[in-house]
Amino acid sequence: MAVLDIENLIVDIPGRADGEPLGLQVKSGQRWGVLGPNGAGKTSLLHTLAGLRPPRRGRVSLNGSPLASLSRRDVARQVAVVFQERQDSFPATVMETVLIGRHPFLSAWQRESAEDIRFAQEALSALSLNLLKDRLVSTLSGGERQRVSIATALTQQPTIWLADEPTNHLDLHHQVAVMELLNQQADNGAAVFMCLHDLNLAARWCDHLLLLYPDGELCFGPAPAMLVPAALERLYDQKLVVAQVNGAPVFVPG
Question: 0.85 exceeded by the pTM?
Fold first, then answer.
């Protein structure tokens, strides 16, 4: 069964006419990348799939249930959302922030259990944040905050990841580490659906791609069928040169 079932979806973007309706299934273990130029609607699509904004038309189902019928707690028990930017409204340490990932599973005023703390500690370790666990998030760099966001999502133990530029602010080493972590999540049965600006990260790590064109057109399918220079050059309005490195395509501006 699909983790996400998207039927005739039109994302509601103010001031924009209806584009081509989207209908696809995101299944356990798949690694989807969403590609498109700035303003194509990648973030709006992700927020719609997370239930954070209603669609203009169509339906999204989460693990067989209509998304619109689920409470925010029910959604949060299944879906982890990683935003491009993190807004911290109150002072909290890294550990306190990462533990927020367990809040959908706790009742009002319930304290985190030993298992909840273990999940958080494992997430901190996976994102190389152990030495920062007592630091206030407000004192961290942009890249460190992004890793905290991903650790918080990991603590949720989600069945699907909706990640908007998960490598935002990260240096090369941590970009690879985060993509390897998401790859491992898919190997363990989670679905991963992420918006990416870096075409080469998508080519290396994604097995399915969704291309969003600025005129509302879209196409999707297995990554090898989507990584066609003609389609990508039209997507980005940019000539590309393709090379092969270790058997995988690498795209650079022409």
Answer: yes
